[in-house]
Amino acid sequence: MIYTVLPLSVRTVVSNDDLLNEILLRLPVISIVLFKLVSKRWLSLIKSPTFIRRRSRIPNIDTPSGLFIEHRLDTNVYGLVPLDIRIRSRLENTFKTGACIRSNAIVMQSCNGLFLCYVRPNHKFCIYNPTVNLFKMLPEPHYSEPEHHLFIKMAFDPTKSPYYKVMHATFINDYYPPESYRIQIYSSETGIWSNVYEHSGPFEGLVSAIYCNNAIHWINHGDNGKLHYKLDFVNTAVILTKIQLPVTVKRKRSCKLFESRGSLLLLGMDNTCSHDQLNVYKMGNRDSEWSLKYSVNKRRISLGGVWCIALGEREEDSFMVIELNGKVVLYNFVLKTFRALPEVQLMLSKIRFPLCNIFLLTASFASV
Fold it and tell me: Residue 365: phi, psi to the nearest 5?
């Protein structure tokens, strides 16, 4: 057996808890989680409430480390497919939290490390952090009749605030399409629902809306796909803004919104080339105009076959997960390489119903 003798400087650091803590605090969250396996001492340091509290205050959004996939819709069983090669897959990863939500929770949204969940059969909502295995049941919203429920969305950006907000909307009347909506805001800072607004507008696309930069964004296909809408609810008032889509994007349901690392992204079919291609556009900081980020040959990729888009800390780490020739693969935008995700194929073989829920999992020490 060969033993490695560490240099004195390294032994000095790893034997000093204060120095080791300072080093660990500066690492990506997923690396910290994996370092729990180094030793019992490292596990104790990382699991300590003081360390978790300090790390949660560091404003950072890590690159997504996995896909959280619902693959048994009748029993709400989720599997974890790693995007980081250091993580093992879990094909039967049900919720590990308390009995009050175990096996009854449905993931509705993933937002920078936190999951917004719906808990049956009592029609409750909760926030769950799978990295640190913590959850919080939310108080019941006002006017929360299930038959009038339209949508609920969470807003959380640790680079802006340690607190999250949840937006809940219900129909005010029984007409379809509804003429107006009642919107309520929950804040984790105050712990209550407040700011009840009545709002009217083209909300038909809200069910598939996404959160980015203090607002909910969606494309209203009733406008022939010409506009995307921004509903700001994090600030003092609910404000609806119309934003023009890029002129080169084809209309009629040929575009889709994504969010990654605080950036709003638009995937759309380009109509200026002899052969259609998929373009990824990025919204500017002032939410005023789109700029072209990536172009992908569309001959083998359909718009509906794109599961998610993720921007890396480095350009060469940016990717999207797509269905390609009956397989699910990770495509790197810069390197133009494909990497198979066989674990997803295994899950797909077990599904008795069409796959409907896929969420990006980002490691986070955020409090709930």
Answer: -100, 20
Q: Is the pLDDT of residue 191 over 50?
A: yes
Length of the chain: 368
Number of domains in the chain: 2
Q: How far apart are CA 94 and CA 70, in angstroms?
A: 10
DSSP 43: H
Beta bridge partners of 183: 169, 197
Q: Is residue 50 part of a domain?
A: yes
Q: How far is CA 115 from CA 201, 307, 345, in A?
A: 28, 18, 24
Is the domain of 98 the same as that of 239?
A: yes
304 membership: H or E segment, kind and range: none
Return d(Cα 146, Cα 98) in angstroms, integer: 25
Residues 173 and 32 both lie in one domain: no
Q: In terms of domains, do 151 and 24 share one?
A: no
pLDDT number for residue 178: 55
- What is the spatial distance between Cα 27 and Cα 36, in angstroms, rounded to a whole number? 13
Q: What helix, strand, coil percent values describe the chain, rounded to 5?
A: 20, 40, 45
Q: Which two three-digit tokens encode residue 232?
A: 């700001």
CB 117 within 8 A of CB 128: yes
Each residue's pLDDT tens digit, 323-351: 877 778 889 999 888 888 877 766 666 65
Same domain (yes/no): 30, 171: no
Report residue 359 as tokens.
């969420």
Structure tokens at 291: 């700029």
CATH number at residue 355: 2.130.10
Q: Which domain holds residue 47?
A: 8-56
